[in-house]
Amino acid sequence: MSRPGDDDWIPEQLKDDVEEVLIPASRIGARLDELAVEVDRDYADRNGDLLLVGVLRGAIFTLSDLARRLTLPCAIDFMACSSYGSGTTSSGVVRILKDLDTDIEGRDVLLVEDIVDTGLTLDYLIKNLRSRKPASVEVLALLTKPSRREVDLPVRYVGFEVPDVFVVGYGLDYAERYRGIPHIVSLRPGTGV
Ligand code: IMP
Ligand code: MG
Q1: Ligand 1 atom nearest 117 alpha carbon
Q2: How many CB atoms are located within 10 Å of the residue 122 CB?
Q3: Which atom of ligand 1 is nearest to the CA of 92?
Q4: Percentage helix, strand, coil, to 5, in the chain?
C-alpha cells in the first residue's frame, strides 16, 4: 500500500487515468535542490532584488518548492496568460489575463514556468517583461519538450527534458484536472488527450 509522499502514490480516484509515472516526486525535489543552488550562486552578487514570477497556474508547485529552497531573499509575483487555441496545442496568440502587481523596473526577474512546449507563450512573456526595463529576465522551466520548439528561447534553468507526450501532474493539467498529482505522469489513451 503506497501512501502520500511515496514515489508510486497516485490519488485513488485518478489512478485509472495514469499511464506511467515519468518523473516521481523525489526526483523533482532532488532536481530543484540542484537548481536552487545554481540560482543562489548566479544571483549572489546582485543587489538582492530577485523577483520570482510564476506563470499561473501550472508553475505554482515549481515556484513554491523552488522558493523554499533558496537561501537568497526573493519576492514572489504571478502572471496569468491564455493562448488562444484549444485542447493540447498552443496557438501563439497570447493574452495577459492577470498582470504583475510589482513594478519590475531595475529588478532581476526569474520567470518560472511549468513546461516549454512550442515556446510561443514564453517568447511573448519575455518580450513583454523586457519592455518594462528590468535589470534582467531569465527563465526557469521545470520541463522542456525540445522536439516541439518553434522559437529559439533562452531558458537558463531546466528541470527535465520530456519526450513529445502530453504530461500532467505537479501543477500541470489536462482540462484543469490532475494538477495535484505529486509526480509528472503520462495519461492513458482514452482519458481525453
Ligand atoms: P507553449 O506556448 O507551446 O510553449 O505552451 C506552453 C504552455 O502549454 C505550458 O505553460 C502549459 O500550460 C501548456 N502545455 C504544453 N505542453 C503541455 C503538457 O504536456 N502538459 C500540460 N500542459 C502543457
Ligand atoms: Mg502554463
Answers
A1: 4
A2: 23
A3: 2
A4: 25, 30, 45
Ligand 1 binding pocket (C-beta < 6 A) is 58, 83, 90, 113-122, 166-168, 172
Q: What is the mean pLDDT of the chain?
A: 93
**Residues noted as catalytic:** 117
Residue ID of nearest Cα to ligand 1 atom 19: 166
Q: Which pTM does this prediction carry?
A: 0.94
- Rounded CA-CA distance 176/173 in Å is 5
Dump pLDDT digits (tens) for 141-183.
Answer: 999 999 989 999 989 999 999 999 999 999 999 999 999 999 9
Residue carrying C-alpha cell 500500500: 1
Cα 98 to ligand 1 centroid, rounded to whole Å? 18
The residue ranges of every structural domain in the chain are 26-163
**Fold classified for 26-163:** Rossmann fold (3.40.50)
How far apart CA 82 and CA 94 sit, in angstroms, is: 6
Q: pLDDT by residue (tens digit) across 13-29? A: 999 999 999 999 999 99
CA–centroid distance, 106 to ligand 2, in Å, is 26
